[in-house]
Amino acid sequence: MKINLPFTKEEVMKLRIGDVLELSGEMYTARDAAHKRFIETLEKGKALPIDLKDATIFYAGPCPPKPGEVIGPIGPTTSTRMDPYVEPLIKQGLIAMIGKGERQDYIADLCKKHKVVYLLGIGGAATLYAQNIQSVEEIAYEDLGTESVKRLRVEGLKVIVGIDTQGNVLHKEGKEKFKR
Fold this sequence. Notes:
The chain is of the alpha/beta class. The chain has helices at 9-14, 32-43, 86-91, 105-114, 126-130, 170-177; strands at 2-4, 20-29, 56-58, 96-99, 117-120, 133-140, 149-163.
């Protein structure tokens, strides 16, 4: 299913675990160090350096590009490290997260309550994912190096719905649904 970002609430409400999506449009990268700073910023009553309204965050820290490349290899990082930061960012408007691996049980509850989704990137496909990146712009926290917040323009980035807005979890329900 082809999706042009940003997602709308109507689009995410139709998604179900196991759906394969091809994303095109803008998203942000942010890993645990950036997430920690997001929360510190919110706790100080300040505005985040990015607008999270209907935003998608890709839990990734891309490698530096070689000459002539837009970006170096970029793959999803383990998502559980971001779990403690999810709810405050959802309350800022975050609609989708891309990472790899299982999440804490409460993340499915948050997805259901706030009608957001967790999307699974493909681990080990960082070089292939880099081919889907059309442009990169560093937005915030430059001192974090590869883990700074970046705005990506992507074309055809493939992901799988891991947690849908009903709170269904692919790692749990999918074991039965996708048995061979």
